[in-house]
Amino acid sequence: MKIGQGASASWLTVSLFLIRRKASPYILIQSDRVSKITFLTSIHKPKSIMKKLTTTAATIAALFFSMQAFCQGQFQKESAGSIAFVSGHVMQLAQAIPADKYAWSPSAGVRNVSQVLAHIISANYFFASKLGAKIPDGVNMETLEKDLKTKEAIAAELKRSYEVATAAIKNTQDAALGNKVVFPFPGEYTNMTAILIMLGHSNEHLGQLIAYARTNGIKPPWSE
């Protein structure tokens, strides 16, 4: 096949042209130069095309469902792993800081060690309750930070609060992650947000406790 002599362009792209012929159902043509047009593909019969389409559709469906299976509960599993990591560090620091340092704070009007730990406990119960968890009997959220007065009491309640929080995360269903949650501060939130804020909150106060500990000459146990 030859292009007319008057053509001035040196390159021509003709791709994916489907030409119907009597002798064969379809022929695919591609060209990369003005003077050359190459017939590239052979003929595919309708039955062959349908077979390939069916196979492709089945493969895509299999991939889709396998990805769905993989993703089920994945956010919750990873979040529970993250809370386990940060809670481990918080609880190690709570044990490493001596009881006589629990009243220490960097300045007047700033939470001391005991109050920071009690605040973490209170927040764990608060966020867990937003996910549907039941706050343990005997825990008064309004007075909790004042009720915990000894290192031993704080350590025990800290452990329990993280257990409740972790269970709440794991028990949150995929379908419920987008459910709206009301917080006493501006913005629109969901169950997923509650989990993320819970994680961020513990990490924030872990950093605060590390600073408190190092200021008092206490090295975090995991950095020994």
From TrEMBL:
Residues 91-209 form the DinB-like domain. Keywords: Coiled coil. It comes from Chryseolinea soli. Pfam families: DinB_2. It comes from the Bacteria. The keyword Coiled coil applies. InterPro entries: DinB-like (IPR024775), DinB/YfiT-like (IPR034660). This is DinB family protein. Residues 141-175 form a coiled coil.
